[in-house]
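Quick board copy: two proteins, each given as sequence then tokens.
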Amino acid sequence: LGLIRLQPRSLIDWCSFNGASQALLSQAYPQAQVQRVEADAALLQRGQARSESRWWSPRRWTGAHATWVAPTQLAAGGVDLLWANMMLHQIEDPLALMQQWQRALAVDGFLMFSTLGPGSLQGLRAVYARLGWPAPHAPFVDMHDFGDMLVASGFATPVMDVETLTLTFGSPCDLLTEVRSL
């Protein structure tokens, strides 16, 4: 985010409850009006309850206030930045979601997302295959396919970047705990 010159006046943190981006976005854009979007009704309710400040809390008068909303509550063309961290690989119909994102963004707004790709969890898949078990997860979508979906959704000149991270774990239980959290 430090490389981006645009300072959005408004932003959406999509699937905010589990996305682990709230502090990062607040630090990068302290003056932005933030909408935390959560499609899961239970997580939306928990997020709303968590964000309520007591009348005596300094949080009520400091910093930008974030509101929690369902995707259906978003106004069209209303935000400068839409941020979706590590959630797209869980979506059954990513094209439909990208169309929602495109409608929510203002003209010249921008989208940033991260997701798992086809190279993710190769070691885990190899272990499952060697043991004759079914695949541990659904196949991940290639970034080129996501780029095509973005264009089909009305986004102009998407820039896709792939970063390979190699993680090591102290035990198989630590690995499975991390995978389950994702």
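And the next:
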Amino acid sequence: MDKPSRWAINTITDLPASVHDRVALLGDAAHAMTTHQAQGAAQAIEDAYILASLLAHPLTTSSTVSEVLKIYEQVRLPWTNWVVKASAEQGKLYEFVDPRFEELAGQTSFEEKKEKFDNLVDVIVDNWKWSWETSADDDKQNAIGMLEKKLGKGKIE
């Protein structure tokens, strides 16, 4: 392309499921997202980390894989669907297309505009907090706890 001016950022809507029987989706196949929080690859790595931890667990056998994958889905799918939404919201803020920017146009004084703009800056910073306040280790421990509760007694429901 001689004069590139646009490119596609492909995303997917929330999936109702990311597991079927003995097949699990992870990474962009399960949660393709915008680039605005640089989380696409990070979420794929976390998916793999948690999935590998579950599959390597001593209670996981060829007969329990389907149940183990459902646990992976229960832990990861709601979280990654949330990250997809958070990244999209952040993009709207970065690109000044969030509806909250329309309020700036209606303000008459510089002080009113500055106050509203400062509030949006705070929103942008707050939208990043989850990335340094959460850990995939917490999700891994939660998933392993679920696995041990479900399979540790030798029964599969």
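Board note added afterward: The CA atoms of residues 96 and 102 lie 9 Å apart.
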